[in-house]
């Protein structure tokens, strides 16, 4: 009977395993500080590294009634490009063997052109540190929100197993463009899911083998 309890325990590990729930480690809605209609500023927790960018509160000519997460957006560009990034110690640090997924929505305001190339990126240490993940959110990329509209929720993912030297460094989210046009962004949510350790996987396999042994013993006892 004691052996059976061991097998059931192993089986529980096999099915439940370690916690692989996605933990949300950072969100950004660009609602702070609060802006007047058509007002612009610099969002809390972010730095304008270069060029044009910040956050703003669009009016109807820009987004005919469409809203993201609240009524304010992050932005970069217009004529000379721009780079907006999160501050150090804002997003958290890179954990080992973890899958990170950044949810976001894009906006193409009605009164400005949208850039051909603009990038949403996740870096280590600073905006100029190693690029952990990058997607072209411009019209040359796969996403092209129509003029005056927002995209649905999009995702940018990477696995930190490919970036061992960067483990423990600050994560930095970057929105950047160097061409004409303006890209808007909102409703950022970065989640992290740990990848099970090999030793835990081995224990899970042991649990399944244990179940097989119990089944066989029952079968032979009956015959
Ligand atoms: Ca917002
Ligand atoms: Ca536009």
Give the arrangement of secondary structure elements:
Layout lengths: L1 H15 L6 E6 L11 E2 L4 E6 L1 E4 L3 H4 L9 E6 L3 E5 L11 E11 L9 E7 L6 E6 L12 E2 L3 E6 L11 E7 L3 E14 L3 H25 L1
Antiparallel strand pairs: 1-13, 2-4, 3-6, 4-5, 5-13, 6-12, 7-10, 7-11, 7-13, 8-9, 8-12
Helix pairs in contact: 1-3
Bound molecules: calcium ion (CA) (2 copies).
Describe this structure in a few short sentences.
The chain is of the alpha+beta class. It contains 3 helices and 13 strands.
CATH topology: Jelly Rolls
- How many independent structural domains? 1
The biggest sheet, with number of strands, parallel, antiparallel or mixed sense and barrel status, is:
8 strands, antiparallel
Estimate the mean pLDDT confidence. 87
Query: How helical, in percent, are the residues?
Result: 10-25%
Q: In whole angstroms, how far apart are the ends?
A: 20 Å
Using the CA coordinates, give the radius of gyration: 24 Å
Q: Assembly type of the shown chains?
A: single chain
Describe this protein's structure:
The chain is built from three helices and 13 strands; from the N terminus they run αββββαβββββββββα. The longest helix is centred in the C-terminal third of the chain and has 25 residues, at 198-222. It is elongated. It has one domain (21-195): Sandwich (Jelly Rolls), CATH 2.60.120.260. With 223 residues, the chain is an alpha+beta fold. Helix 1 packs across helix 3 (198-222). Strands 1, 2, 4, 5, 7, 10, 11 and 13 form an eight-stranded antiparallel beta sheet that branches. A five-stranded antiparallel beta sheet has the order 3-6-12-8-9, with no helix packed on it. Strand 8 and strand 9 form a beta hairpin. It binds calcium ion (2 copies). One calcium ion is lined by residues 29-31, 68-70, 72-73, 186.
């Amino acid at each position: 009977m004691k052996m059976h309890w061991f097998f059931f325990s192993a089986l529980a590990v096999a099915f439940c395993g370690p916690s692989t729930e996605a933990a949300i480690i950072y969100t950004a809605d660009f609602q702070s500080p609060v802006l007047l209609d058509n007002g612009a500023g610099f969002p809390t927790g972010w730095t304008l590294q270069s060029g044009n960018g910040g956050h703003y509160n669009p009016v109807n000519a820009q987004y005919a009634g469409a809203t993201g997460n609240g009524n304010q957006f992050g932005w970069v560009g217009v004529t000379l490009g721009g780079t907006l990034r999160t501050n150090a110690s804002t997003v958290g640090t890179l954990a080992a063997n973890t899958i990170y997924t950044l949810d976001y929505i894009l906006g193409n305001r009605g009164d400005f052109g949208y850039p051909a190339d603009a990038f949403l990126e996740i870096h280590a240490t600073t905006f100029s540190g190693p690029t952990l993940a990058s997607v072209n959110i411009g019209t040359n990329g796969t996403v092209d929100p129509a003029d005056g509209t927002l995209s649905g929720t999009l995702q940018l993912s990477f696995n930190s197993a490919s970036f061992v030297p960067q483990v423990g460094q600050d994560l930095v989210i970057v929105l950047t463009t160097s061409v004409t046009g303006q890209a808007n962004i909102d409703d950022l949510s970065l989640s992290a899911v740990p990848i099970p350790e090999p030793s835990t996987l081995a224990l899970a396999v042991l649990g399944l083998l244990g179940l097989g042994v119990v089944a066989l013993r029952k079968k032979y006892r009956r015959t």
